[in-house]
Amino acid sequence: MTLLDITAKEKETLPPPRYTEAGLIKELEKRGIGRPSTYASIIKTLRDRLYTEKEGRALKPTDTGETVSNFLNENFENYISDSFTAQMEDDLDDIANGKKEYAKILKSFYKPFTKDIKSKEKMDKVTNLGQADKKFKCPLCKGPMIIKLGKTGKFMSCEKFPDCAGARTIDGEILAGPQETGEKCPQCETGKLVIREGRFGKFISCNQYPKCKYIKEDPAEAEKKKTGVKCPKCQKGEMIERRGRFGIFYACSNYPTCKHAIKSKPTGKICGYPRSDKPGGKCDELMMEGTKTIPTRCSDKTCPNHRPDKLQKA
Q1: How far apart are CA 43 and CA 34, in angstroms?
Q2: Cα gap 248→163, rounded to integer Å
Q3: Which of 95, 160, 180, 196 has its CA 20 to 30 A from that of 41?
């Protein structure tokens, strides 16, 4: 027979697509993990703790998420397995239906679980992810480096830290350490102000952090964050805009002496809703901005005026 033609085709086995939020919930349902009432909190935890980030509609695991997942798989595999989780869900349903006693179920779980927790107390920090490639040397002392997990993801740190502060990005670029500004910290009066690199860019803080948590703000930016509303708790500070791990919130400028904080921007008005559990017989907490349907509401979650829409229906 005569060969007339031959065609070669290359095919690669593609990994399964990443889960979307809806796809993840379907997978949980398929495995019998969780209940409809817990699915929203599961997704919220993944987002709030920065275990995942969205890439289009798909959920992509972050460095933190992968590290936490690997740690749990290596050390607490029994407690995160599908079979254990599904069985615990069934046991909780049986307790709710009166078929099993909650004390016996919880005891059978907590006794071995507490023992396993204690056995891991002397483990190395989970942020240490092992030795870095030998081709990357410490930019300061030329010594070996290790991979660590920080708030902004993985990076390489000198093995001698804190004696040596040399660091590189995970790609090998040199990271500049804190740079002194020549100013004295006005809060502790013993530290020096340094320029640091954070999640939201460069900022100036005391070099004695965490003992001193002073952060110097740009005057123009600080002016924008002011609300002109006096703190109702200490009567000294002003409610200003701050940013935390869960987004923007408003707190007293007299922090850490005063730790009063609310979720949304204060309107400047005080809630006058009648309350027998408050001095003077009324709420006296700050009113804050709400939504399109609820323009303003009380900042105190225990006040009925925190949900004025429900008051109107009643």
Answers
A1: 11
A2: 36
A3: 95
- The encoded tokens of residue 95 equal 């307790």
Q: What's the length of the chain?
A: 314
Q: What amino acid is encoded at 137 in this protein?
A: K
Q: What domains sit in the chain, N to C, each tagged with a CATH number?
A: 21-119 (1.10.460.10), 124-177 (no CATH), 178-216 (no CATH), 221-313 (no CATH)
Give the tokens for residue 54. 């969205």
Query: The tokens 């107390």 sit on which residue?
Result: 121
pLDDT in tens, 211-252: 787 777 767 777 888 888 999 888 888 999 988 777 789 999
Give ∠ CA 160-165-168 in degrees, rounded to 5. Answer: 100
> SS in 3 state form for the chain?
CCCCCCCCCCCCCCCCCCCEHHHHHHHHHHHCCCCHHHHHHHHHHHHHCCCEEEECCEEEECHHHHHHHHHHHHHCHHHHCHHHHHHHHHHHHHHHCCCCCHHHHHHHHHHHHHHHHHHCCCCCCCCEEEECCCCCCCCCCCCCEEEEEECCEEEEEECCCCCCCCEEECCCCEECCCEEEEEECCCCCCCEEEEEEECCEEEEEECCCCCCCCEECCHHHHHHHEEEEECCCCCCCEEEEEEECCEEEEEECCCCCCCCEECCCEEEEECCCECCCCHHHECCCEEEECCCCCCEEECCCCCHHHCHHHHHHC
CA distance 261 to 229: 12
**What is the tens place of the pLDDT at every residue in 45-65?**
898 888 888 888 899 998 888
pTM higher than 0.70: no
